[in-house]
Amino acid sequence: MPITVTINGVSSDRFFGGGPDLAPVLLNHPTQSATTIDGWKSAIMGLPFLFCGLFIEKAAFFPIPAHGKHAATMPTWMISLLGGFFLFGGLFLVVHGVAGLIRKAAHDREAAQHPGQPWLSDHHWHKEGFAYSAFRTMISRLFAALVWSAFLVPFFWVGLHGPGMARVFLAGAILFGLLGLIFWYRWAQMLADLLRYGNSFLNYDQFPYFLGGTLRARLRAPRHVSDLDELTFTLRCVQEKYVTTGTGRDQRSNVVCYELYKDAHTLTRDQITGLAGGDIPVDFPLPPDQRTTTLCYNPPTYWEIEARGHAHTIAYEAYFLVPVYKQP
Question: Are residues 272 and 223 in the same domain?
Answer without folding.
Answer: yes
